[in-house]
Design goal:
769 residues, alpha+beta, Beta Polymerase, domain 2, Poly(a)-polymerase, middle domain, Alpha-Beta Plaits, five-stranded mixed beta sheet, five-stranded antiparallel beta sheet, globular, poly(A) RNA polymerase activity, ATP-binding
Length: 769
């Protein structure tokens, strides 16, 4: 409990005390109303008629489910009186359950059934009922997914429908899924399906004011989508992760309104000391839950968890990291966006800018000098939807492969895919664009062939394993310069301009800090937190590429084909093709991961309605600055930060150990939160057994306030040091090993049958001078 200014005690939320209990001032309420008005043109609010339509549709689906359970029970020789009382119902989760869904958004739903109804019934008889229903369109079952799902459009509303069977004879209408005893004796797929609802409900229980939380989250989601950092599958954050960050902000400022919370959101997470985890509540150990031996996120016992770069931990047991897809590149990009958001929102609070500036999209296609164009191609529209879904789910692996390539400092994928300028119905194609940033080097060749080959091998293997590979499915990777993008994108996309009101990090408002500056503020962790800390040397962020050479208009192409019409040369190997297709640059330009340090000039006379006078602006700015200083000092004192930099650590293989069975379903609010490890690597529980020397040294920190006992009785939080030098060497070894393995396969065993192993036809090489 916390004491407010009036002397009354106030309930505390989260794992630490609030930073501020201050309530809103009249100006904060005015700004909150302006924020709500600024969101309306973007379609983030549904009309009352649309909301009622969703309620009616969910009611129809619930009735359909109840009747199906009765019919299935009777078919299994259950007495009619019992069959009519076994129950079963539909639950919602995700953005709809949180109350922040937008116009036309889908609804994530969960069908909960009693123990005599199993998954085969769900994908059998219930699927047939849906198939024969005239209100159901675009029906598709993904039975072998990590989180099995039926996708459909019901009464013109898109839905994702999961299934969970409880170990109960009946499912009453008033059932609460937060009861952890319901997880006993359930299979992992049912636990994962339930976790989406459980996480959503926990978030709503852990915020002080739901309405303030919802408005802030609507703004954050719109900002993230417009700024191109809303995609769990591509290594950014998904909806539930953004919701947890906003919820943590609400816990730290429980009495603040949305306008204040939005600025505090950017303040807190632009200073966050990653990879310290974001926690809405303390992690519950499996030993504390009798009969519930599910693994939870804990870097002290699970070695794989120590590699997570931006952990945001789900609040419902079993707690998992919702952001294990995040890479060094995507984290750097998001850190930069947090800085930009902080600069803009701080200006809004003092009347120097408007909320609309926060939601302006950046021009991704003018930011980098070099791009990889990744194309997913198939032979029919029927196959293409499934093919692009698989390719997109693996693009994050390509990003990791690229950033682990020598001389590459950042790989930035745009979350949206594009169709060709002249679509070919015979060969449906979707393209993703990846911007590249390099170290400042001269006279070096950057060979991306191995990274591309590793990625295509992964996609092809997944397609074959899932038995979804069809003739004509293929991937093409092309390197192009910025000036060549006009061959692939319309002018309306390439010439998108930023509004001048957008403030860049490094401006006066943001305190002159770059996006990759010292992220030393951890607003949740104090001495009692069992946290993972990784330390390393900072990396070089600024890159300038200069060059002049031949073939400036040619793009190097790496074509990967697995169809029968593409013959594999028995002598072709990655090693041999890496000597051809060299592309050299004739442009001289500067490419950096940071926007300009200077803020763009503001339009003369820009004044928001009801904005304060110049004297009032100065007073407000002083209050904003004072609040930031207070926040920083308060949280740093809690965190005990020593000012050390964070690492450039990442999984060398480019894929988290938890990813291996994830790709079938793309339900962000489930898959982002429920990566249950089916075969965890168990770390040593004794600190002396897990201690390493050199780069793998583990240190134990005593926690006297909130001890968490390990098996040897040591109360500890683990620190891990990773040497970037050794990591880079290791990643280079992995890429080299991939090339050598492929060469050995083709040389020793002869060519594989066409359509079995994709081979990069041409090298992708970029020459830096």
């Amino acid at each position: 409990m916390s004491s407010s200014a009036s002397g009354q005690t106030q309930k505390s939320y989260g794992i630490t005390s609030p930073i501020s209990l201050a309530g809103p001032k009249p100006g904060d309420i005015t700004l909150t109303k302006a924020l709500e008005e600024s969101l309306k043109p973007y379609g983030v609010f549904e009309s009352e008629e649309e909301l009622q339509h969703r309620i009616v549709v969910l009611g129809k689906l619930n009735t359909l489910v109840k009747q199906w359970i009765i019919d299935t029970s009777l078919a299994k020789n259950m007495p009619e009186s019992v069959a009519n009382s076994v129950g079963g119902k539909i639950f919602t989760f995700g953005s709809y359950r949180l109350g922040v869904h937008t116009k036309g958004a889908d609804i994530d739903t969960l069908l909960v059934a009693p123990r005599h109804i199993d998954r085969s019934d769900f994908f059998g008889t219930f699927y047939e009922i849906l198939k024969n229903n005239e209100d159901v369109k675009e029906l598709r079952a993904v039975e072998n997914a990590f989180v099995p799902v039926i996708k459909l459009v019901f009464c013109n509303i898109e839905m994702d429908l999961l299934f969970a069977r409880l170990a109960l004879p009946e499912v009453p209408d008033d059932l609460s899924l937060l009861d952890e005893s319901l997880l006993k004796n359930l299979d992992p797929k049912c636990v994962r399906s339930l976790n989406g609802c459980r996480v959503t409900d926990e978030i709503l229980h852990l915020v002080p004011n739901i309405e303030n939380f919802r408005l802030t989250l609507r703004a954050v989601k719109l900002w993230a989508k417009n700024r191109g950092i809303y995609s769990n599958v591509l290594g950014f954050l998904g909806g539930v992760s953004w919701a947890m960050l906003v919820a943590r902000t609400c816990q730290l400022y429980p009495n603040a309104v949305a306008a204040t919370l939005l600025q505090k959101f950017f303040l807190v997470f632009s200073k966050w000391d990653w990879p310290n985890p974001v926690l809405l509540k303390n992690i519950t150990q499996p030993a504390e839950k009798l009969g519930l031996n599910f693994p939870v996120w804990d870097p002290r016992y699970n070695p794989a968890d120590r590699y997570h770069l931006m952990p945001i931990i789900t609040p419902a047991f079993p707690q998992q990291n919702s952001t294990f897809n995040v890479s060094m590149s995507t984290r750097s990009i998001m850190n930069e966006e947090f800085e930009i958001g902080l600069a803009i929102t701080s200006d809004v609070l003092i009347g120097k800018s408007t909320w609309d500036a926060l939601f302006q999209p950046p021009n991704f296609f003018s930011k980098y000098k070099h791009y990889i164009v990744l194309s997913a191609i198939s032979n029919s529209e029927e196959d293409h939807l499934e093919w692009i879904g698989l390719v997109e789910s693996k693009v994050r692996i390509l990003v990791s492969n690229l950033e682990n390539t020598q001389f590459v400092t950042l790989a930035h994928v745009k979350p949206k895919s594009f169709a060709p300028l002249e679509p070919d119905k015979a060969s449906p194609t979707n393209r993703w664009f990846i911007g590249l940033q390099f170290e400042k080097k001269e006279n070096v060749n950057v060979d991306l062939t191995g990274a591309i080959q590793m990625f295509t091998n992964t996609v092809h293997t997944q397609a074959v394993t899932a038995k979804m590979f069809k003739e004509g499915m293929r991937i093409e990777a092309i390197h192009v310069k910025k000036k060549q993008l006009s061959k692939y994108l319309p002018p309306s996309v390439l010439k998108q301009k930023k509004k001048s009101s957008i403030v860049q990090p490094g401006s006066a408002t943001s305190g002159g800090k770059s996006a990759k500056g010292d992220v030393s503020l951890d607003s949740t962790l104090n001495a009692s937190d069992a946290s993972l800390e990784i330390t390393s040397e900072p990396s070089n962020d600024s890159v300038e590429l200069t060059g002049s050479s031949e073939n400036s208009e040619e793009a190097s192409v790496a074509t990967v084909s697995s169809s029968d019409d593409k013959k594999v040369n028995p002598d072709s190997t990655v090693s041999s093709v890496s000597t051809v297709g060299e592309v050299t640059s004739s442009d001289t330009t500067s490419v950096t991961s940071q926007p300009s340090a200077a803020s763009p000039d503001k339009p003369a006379g820009l004044k928001r309605a009801g904005s304060p006078s110049e004297d009032e602006k100065g007073s407000k700015k002083r209050r904003v600055d004072d609040a930031e200083i207070t926040t920083t000092s308060s949280v740093n004192s809690l965190n005990g930060n020593d000012g050390r930099k964070r690492p450039n650590s990442n999984l060398i293989d480019g894929e988290s150990p938890h990813e291996k069975k994830k790709d079938g379903a793309d339900l962000d609010s489930v898959n982002a939160n429920t990566q249950m490890r089916e075969s965890d690597v168990k770390g040593s529980t004794k600190t002396e057994n897990c201690a390493k020397t050199g780069d793998n040294k583990l240190e134990n920190l005593t926690d006297s306030n909130n001890p968490v006992e390990s098996k040897d009785g040591v109360s500890a939080a683990v620190k891990r040091s990773i040497s970037p030098t050794n990591e880079e060497k290791h990643s280079e070894k992995k890429l080299k090993s991939a090339n050598e393995d492929l060469e050995k396969e083709l040389t020793d065993e002869g060519p594989p049958p066409a359509g079995q192993i994709p081979v990069v036809k041409n090298a992708i090489k970029i020459k830096l001078k």
